[in-house]
Amino acid sequence: MSRKRVSLGKRLRHCSSVDCVGVQPNWSDYPREVRETIAQSSIVYYPSRLYEDLFRSLGKRVFPQNYYGFMGHKIRQTALFQLLHVPHPRTRLYYGSNRSERIMRDFPFPLIAKNPVGSSQGEGVWLVRTAADLEAYLDKHHPAYIQEYLPIDRDLRVVLIAQQVVHAYWRMAPAGEFRNNVSRGGSISFEDIPQKALDFARWTATVCRFDEVGLDICYAHGRWWVLEANMVYGLEGFRRRGLDIYAVFRSLDEGGAL
Q1: Is the distance from CB of 112 to CB of 125 less than 8 angstroms?
Q2: Which SS3 state, helix, strand or coil, does residue 117 take?
């Protein structure tokens, strides 16, 4: 095997400077020369959930940072945004008893309720308008993840890799739908994307140390907000823009960004 940088995941498969060796369920499944290459590498790309903590415990850098641990984990994302003072809709978790009373004391209707871990493509998100809606949500969710409702009809998906904006587009909700997801019938527009929005997304990715992320941001009440960080994001916007995600990675690699 040539002495290249090493990646377990296949994201960098078209980068000539990186060997993509795949994710094996057992360390012993890798050939000896692959194990030696990984052991000698100061950085491992896309190490997978299985091996990320192992490599980090040995002092190795991993790329992307803050990826697997925040993937689909709204609780961790919210805590990170709050810790770093990243503008994020007011959000609280509720455990234990009397959750309905405490939520209605803290939030007016309508409010947003979500699955705290997992779900994507607009699944696991509810617009809660009444106490009955809230009880139906609470009956199936522990803990409750409750967020203030922002009056928007669109949000902006900004994809960043190595803190560089590589793609951005508006997602606009269809009539009668509060979710802007393309998978829920939302439309895409590449027009009139404010530079301030892209600057805000770049700042957010930088302070959060997100090396690869699709940020959903929106403008409300006179400022930009981060709604969510997506480590697994759809590629429909890329396709409509005529972009190849693997070519984007190859370009970034050749430019020294990775």
Answers
A1: yes
A2: strand
